[in-house]
Amino acid sequence: MSDSPNTADKNAIINIKLPTDDNVLAVTTSRQNGHSNTPYDSFNLGFHVSDSEHCVTLNRQKLAQYFPQECNIQWLNQIHGSDVIDVKCYSSTPLTADASYTNNSNLALGILTADCLPILLVNNTGAEIAAIHGGWRPLADNIIANTVKLFKDTPDNITAWLGPCIGPKAFEVGLEVKQQFEKLSPDFSKAFVQQPDGKFLADLHLIATLQLQQLGINKIIGLAECTYTNQDKYFSYRRDGKTGRMASVICINT
Predict the structure, then answer these.
(1) Which SUPFAM superfamilies match (predicted)?
(2) C-alpha pair distances (Å), 166 with each of 134, 173, 204, 223, 226
(3) Which of 18, 39, 181, 212 places its Cα 20 to 30 Å from the Cα of 122?
């Protein structure tokens, strides 16, 4: 395992500093400095997007170097639902869910995104971690609350990290999306800005922040960069359609 990305990899793999000393390792990735060709250029980590399996394998091997050798990354078959897996042991087959939790130090939890919001959770001692695929549908179906329920620690002892996603000036949605969140709470109306055509710009970071705060989680950090507008740095499904996937990964370091 490398303590930090080397010069060739620093733009591909971005270390996440969490307030748990060295108890937890976490990274998020960009699209840069990988092995995949156009339109997956170049650090694509998703097998499901029709990229070369060989290239994705090389990219995943590169990512794995930043975690202990015995620590496998548990990937998910993400379906934009609200199910959460309590991962007890590694499965080479992706588990069907949109969030995962573990207190096992031999597991890393991975989330793939290309506009949706990656969310990582960790308790103060670094003994419990979770990774959440925060698309608007999972968020509207309370996937954050479903994940927090698995923590033995209390919400005030949990820190949340919010990663790059489609930003509040680029994520246009219809009235029905706004209404789904307003059914949860009128507070979510502040996360939507109406446009002249009657549609709305939605702020995923703000939606997640409000949900976390409602659960009692107020330690929130993140990287609020827009995947849609940062074309050189990030994949964006809404911008490009056929494209790759970034990853956000967290593991307990013992």
Answers:
(1) CNF1/YfiH-like putative cysteine hydrolases (SSF64438)
(2) 11, 12, 8, 12, 5
(3) 181
pLDDT tens for 47-71 read 999 999 999 999 999 999 999 988 9
CB 23, CB 253: distance < 8 Å: yes
- Selection from 104, 102, 103, 100 nearest residue 118 by Cα: 100
For residue 133, list its beta bridge partners: 118
Domains belonging to the chain, first-starting first, are: 13-165+218-252 (3.60.140.10)
Backbone φ, ψ for residue 122 (5° rounding)? -150, 140
Does residue 23 sit in helix, strand or coil? coil
Task: For 114-144, give the secondary structure using H, E and C.
Answer: CCCEEEEEEECCCCCEEEEEECHHHHHCCHH
